[in-house]
Task: structure prediction
Amino acid sequence: MQIAHPSPAQRDPAWQGRVFWSLAALLLLWPLLVTTEFKPWLLWHAESRKVMGNFLAEFFPPAHDKEFLILVAKETWRTVAVATAGIALALLMAIPLTLLGTSALSVSALSGKMAFLPSIVRQAIRWLLIILRSVPELVWALVFVRVVGLGPTAGVLAIALTYAGMLGKVYTEILESGEAHATQSLMRNGGGRLQSFFYGLLPQNAAELTSYTVYRWECAIRSSAVLGFVGAGGLGQQLDNSMKMFKGSEVATLLIVFMLLVWLADKASSWLRKELG
Result:
């Protein structure tokens, strides 16, 4: 008895679409790989393996002398302080910009189309938020290192500006995507913008706003370590110094501490989101 084999369409009705999009992805990806000169096989050349092996061999054992560990502890605390202070300044800038840029809090929009001047102001604020977040914090840090000198101040200002743009944009989107009926009712009955925000928009969006803020604080901790490579202090600056001095054991210790710091920040942010949510 001959067994009838099902056709590809019977086995998987969507096989043609999967094949098409897979080929399309490869065609789009190939020019990008060529442009970026992506050649991972170079890692397996004899000379590359030798250099990598020598570099990794210097990591063991990690540096653990008392004086260096005290220095690492200070730089770790400085990294957390830079991230927290940067987020605090970012909130001081983002919250007013959010209140001014949220169309749900516009009195003139209650009657229909928003008035010309408020519309221009809100558009200008949105462009300002775009400018702030489009410049990476690393670029801001390079600018502020030249202005205020080496140290954590440059890192705090860099995080504050970039994250103010990010927070302001997302806060505005969260507030405008929520139900605005209660807020508009408050304003129609004589309530001010702040009253309408605190009693209308904020209660229904508080959990989402808090969750995103805590997530950005976690990201700021990672950013503050990277900013140290341009002289903004913290673990990154010490890591850069150790790498320049070819002290692999110190680099290993700093990487371990940084991974532990990111893990603790992730756990802390998860706990805060759970408690505040």
